[in-house]
Amino acid sequence: MASVIVVGAGAAGMVAAWRAARRGHAVTLLEANGKPGVKLRISGGGKCNITHAGPMKALLAAFSAEQARFLRPAFHRFTNEDVLGLLAQRGVETYARENGRVFPLDQPGSAVRVVAAFEDLVREAGVELRSGARITGLSARAPRCSGVSLEEGRLEADAVILATGGASYPETGTRGEVAGWLQALGVPVAPWFPALAPIPLVTPQPAWEGVAFRDGTLHLRAGREGRRLAAFAGDIVFTKTGISGPAALELSREVEAARRGGGAFLAYAFAAEADLAADLEAMRTGHPHLAVQSWLARRLPDRVCGPALQAAGLPPQQRFKDLTREQARTLRTLVAEFPLGAPQAVPLSRGEVAAGGVRTAAVDPRTMRVRGWDNLFVCGELLDVDGPVGGYNLQAAFSTGFVAGDSA
Ligand SMILES: Cc1cc2nc3c(=O)[nH]c(=O)nc-3n(C[C@H](O)[C@H](O)[C@H](O)COP(=O)(O)OP(=O)(O)OC[C@H]3O[C@@H](n4cnc5c(N)ncnc54)[C@H](O)[C@@H]3O)c2cc1C
To answer: How many angstroms does the Cα of residue 352 sit away from the middle of ligand 1?
Structure first.
């Protein structure tokens, strides 16, 4: 029997601690917060999108090629079915939505039930869970980590698993400081970078708060007339300060990279320009007396339609028969490339996941052991792994946590 310290009682740390204890080790799980799983409790808007349904190969395809290569052994060792099986044992029933996202059966506070299930598993396996215990440093000199420092002293162990998460939502306990300590020990670490975050705009539209643009594509350009850098098909929702919603979250990482690179401009495509040109021509000949605004209202939300027409310099009563070539082009562009403007800095703190962390090349994917170290392991969001919205990030935390607990 060996002694194992696991730092961080989130998704990865709880699974790692449970697995190491089930293998017969004496496990201490240290958590800075007063209770475990604080980020899990707010995940999926409090419902917790636990994982994604489907073969693990398909889940891996949602990550970048490099990240997928790293995650492959862990994803096959502890699959989405394994996670759901474990939860089912604890009475948490789940279902997959049409889009593949897996949630507990709809009940108020379902994320809390997921946390309670993991907490039970951890305690039943004999793990000593210490809440309110923030570690302040590592006792380490390559190739060994002998333990951790706490405010009240040091704690030693035969192996240390770090599962301290990313650097977003610091109010959930994740401040990212452990990555800095690892870097100081010579472990390669990529800087924290915002991902899956809402995007503040230089010129927000607070009057449109809550309005959604649906079924189109969010485009990112290197400046208003610049080349197209990235696009994501999906909805956006206006907030007081900018935009949120699936497409905004998914594109936030590229938006921040473009912004730091010198120029970024966002636009929303409700439809393709070629289709619109044909449609407008059909309207001009088929319905010459129809007001342009009513055509626009079929594509743009009501609250946006009038102001957009005005901003484009088109009179509200403009009819198709009087539409000039220039006005037709303006109208087309409005729908094919509705300008949202330049983004402001995307805040790291509001990302559903933080990109960056311990570089995957520095970690053995079959054990989660940090290369060059005998007994130091990392897992979960502390790794430089970030997937899209849809349950992928929690699956990555569960799978890598399992492998770390199985290897320590
Ligand atoms: C609002 C929101 C919604 C989300 N929704 C989903 C979703 O529905 N589905 C999905 O797949 N992903 C979702 N995510 C992402 C997902 O929650 C995370 O990727 C995942 O929780 C990471 O797990 P982890 O165990 O690595 O880290 P965490 O769950 O963040 O756990 C890390 C733990 O380490 C503790 N800790 C940190 N530093 C120290 C220290 N020095 N000493 C002691 N303890 C420390 C922290 O307090 C924390 O409890 C969401 C994220 C957010 C912010």
So the answer is: 9
